[in-house]
Amino acid sequence: MPNHHYRKLALTLALALIQISKQELDWDAQEDECSHFLVRQEWRSLSQAHKAEYIAAVKCTQSLPARSGFEAAQTRFDDFQAVHIHVAGEIHIVGHFLPWHRRFIKIHETTLRQECGYRGAIPYWDWTLDADSLDSFSKSPVFDPVHGFGGDGVPGTYILPNDPDGTSELFPETFVGCVQDGPFASHRLHIGPGKLRTDHCLVRGLNDTYKDFLTSEAVARTMEQPTFELFRVQLEGGGSNPYPAQHGSGHLIVGGDMGNLFSSPGDPLFYLHHANLDRLWWQWQEEDLPTRFLDISGRLHVNGPRLTQVTLNYWLTFHTLAPPMSVRDTMDIQKPPFCYAYA
């Protein structure tokens, strides 16, 4: 091979290493203390301009090329959905459910800020405000077509594809139809529903069936749990709690991809829902920080033995989205790399 080919190859490899190193520095370089905090606010408390800025940032990720390496992912928005689908069986009904999603939401927040110029924090959706109301959930401001995420799916506009091996957990009653108003009416998903790879609209199927699990009274029962595992089971469901609880109910109220275990990040409301779950976990931690910074337990694998428990030293993986992180490093949102608070 001529010398100039060797030089070209060496230069290409060097540039690749520089890029990888830069990405690692972006995520890992951090001080011991936070220099400033992002403040996550409830969606309806944001100004109209702030809401528009957040929606624009989400749409930005839907236009940027994918970087995750997953074949089905075409955009940065897809990257997050693809990773979630890939690990869904490992991060639900387990002790590290909340730590994993805390980091996942933060990675998405950082992506909005670093790659799309968003200046704020991810907002959260406090669905107790809607569940305590006599109105239907469809009246929630998050479903506003102008200052929200669009409304319900329109019946007859979507046909649920066949699931050949039956592993995608598709429930036809939740896939009512395509969302035809709001900022994501024309958005096409490239992944899902479930584990499938199909090009489809944003599908929803709003319903009030699980409303009682999202009331302030239901949340109060969750918050009074004395240990992390009891709190997690009451919040997520599973284990000794046969009901969908706050986690599952928030997904199923919306329906469509949002109501699916695997492909739920295909609906932008996923991030507001999980930010609210994270907020509740933080509020529970704040009741006894010295103890609850260290309180982690629960089975490591959904079908594994109860004796195999998650610990603070367990490593959470996010594939190409960000480097791995220990559960211990997710426990305090007032420390880097989190550095946020809830209003």
Going by CATH, what is the homologous superfamily of the largest domain? Answer: Di-copper center containing domain from catechol oxidase
Low-confidence stretches: 1-29
Number of domains: 2
The Cα radius of gyration reads 20 Å
Named CATH architecture of the largest domain: Orthogonal Bundle
Helix content percent band: 25-40%
Largest sheet composition: 3 strands, antiparallel
- List SSEs in N-to-C order: HEHHHHEEEEEHHHHHEEE
CATH topology descriptor of the largest domain: di-copper center containing domain from catechol oxidase
The best one-word shape is globular
Indicate the proportion of strand residues.
5-15%
Describe the fold and architecture.
By secondary structure, this protein is mainly alpha-helical. The chain has 2 domains: 1-30; 34-342, di-copper center containing domain from catechol oxidase (Orthogonal Bundle). The protein contains 10 helices and 9 strands. It has helices spanning 3-28, 48-61, 76-91, 97-116, 128-131, 216-223, 228-236, 245-254, 269-286, 289-292, and strands at 38-40, 153-155, 177-179, 188-189, 200-201, 203-204, 315-316, 325-326, 340-342. The strands form 4 sheets. The chain has a 3-stranded antiparallel beta sheet, with no helix packed on it. A two-stranded parallel sheet has the order 1-9. Strands 4-5 form a two-stranded antiparallel sheet. Strand 7 (315-316) and strand 8 form a beta hairpin. Helix 2 crosses helix 4. The longest helix is centred in the first third of the chain and has 26 residues, at 3-28. The chain is globular, with a radius of gyration of 20 Å. The model is unreliable at 1-29 (pLDDT under 50).
